[in-house]
Design goal:
The protein is mainly alpha-helical. It is built from 14 helices and no strands. The chain is globular, with a radius of gyration of 21 Å. It starts with a helix and ends with a helix.
């Protein structure tokens, strides 16, 4: 089959699968609600207040969050793998997850240690705000360092070192904290798509959309970076400016999702490889929208499974992502 026809057919298939999974996610839940009632609630029909709340405030919001998180993490993972030319790079490779964990740890674990209550500042900052500030802080440090360093692998190593240092601080806070605060922090680290309210969704949506707009703007630089930074420079690409664009996009996408949903593993690492297998293409004009659709479909599917078996979302994404990562490692080792 011609590659162009194959690409078109896969896009059509994904464009059908994603809405179907979205509808299925609305149908699945602890309470059985007929599809007719869900449709009436979505279209403003006459539905009981409690049922309307379950459909609109819980299921619909959670399905939208699952779709946005899948798209955001997959696109940011694709950007990181291309930028670092490393198949095992993910959206959290530069310390986004660790930075978010530091922010949440300072909010949940740190404030009680100095005599402040986390709930007293909840309306002003909250877990989501502290997580986003933490991830943005770490990425800001990495971005400022990247101004003076040209070697992208050195930046990767520095990001890993920052991540390790932050993790050490978080462990100290965990060791010193009380049982109740520690439990709250551990629950956040498990990741959840159900903690995002309508108000939080109003903040999550524009941040992710802005990150996606920046990601679209990075398509040409990403294609040039596939051929190496030296070749990209000879083609007139401003490496540092492109790097900042990609890092900013990743911060908005992965950092915002981590802030509101907690660290959701393996989607950003595995879905870009799954997209490459589906499309058999290296052009980011195909891969970026392909990763967005594939990521949305995968996380919607994971959410459906997690609701059916009442399991944390991270357990499902890990069971799905680990085999793909193992396959990538074995494949690259056999090539070498």
């Amino acid at each position: 089959m011609d590659l162009k026809k194959r690409t078109s057919r896969i896009f059509v298939l994904l464009s059908v699968v994603v809405p179907l999974l979205f509808v299925a996610d609305l149908l699945v839940g602890g309470v059985a609600i007929p599809a007719k009632v869900i449709w009436q609630a979505l279209t403003g029909g006459d539905v009981e207040a409690s049922t309307r709340m379950i459909i609109l405030d819980i299921r619909l919001t959670k399905a939208i969050v699952a779709l946005l998180a899948g798209v955001a993490l997959s696109v940011s993972g694709l950007q990181m793998q291309t930028l670092f030319r490393n198949p095992l790079a993910g959206p959290y490779v530069l310390g986004i997850s660790s930075g978010a964990s530091l922010g949440v740890a300072l909010f949940i674990l740190g404030m009680p240690l100095v005599g402040l209550s986390g709930s007293s500042l909840g309306s002003a900052l909250g877990i989501a705000g502290s997580a986003w500030l933490g991830s943005a802080l770490i990425l800001g440090i990495i971005a400022s360092v990247s101004h003076r360093i040209r070697d992208i692998m050195v930046i990767l190593i520095l990001g890993m070192m920052f991540s390790s240092g932050v993790s050490a601080v978080v462990q100290i806070l965990q060791y010193l904290s009380h049982e109740e605060a520690l439990k709250s922090f551990v629950i956040w680290t498990m990741g959840s798509l159900g903690d995002v309210t309508r108000g939080r969704l109003a903040l999550l949506l524009p941040a992710v959309l802005l990150g996606l707009v920046l990601a679209v703007g990075s398509i040409k630089p990403l294609n040039l970076l596939l051929l190496g930074e030296q070749y990209a420079q000879t083609m007139g690409l401003d490496i540092r400016r492109s790097r900042r664009l990609i890092l900013l996009s990743t911060t908005l996408l992965a950092g915002t999702v981590t802030a509101f949903c907690g660290p959701i593993g393996f989607i950003g690492l595995a879905v870009p490889h799954l997209t490459r297998m589906l499309f058999r293409n290296a052009d980011h004009r195909v891969l970026l929208p392909g990763a967005a659709l594939t990521g949305g479909a995968v996380l919607l599917c994971c959410d459906i499974i997690s609701k059916c078996w009442t399991l944390p979302i991270n357990t499902i994404t890990a069971l799905l992502g680990i085999p793909i990562v193992i396959w990538v490692v074995i494949r690259n080792q056999s090539i070498a």
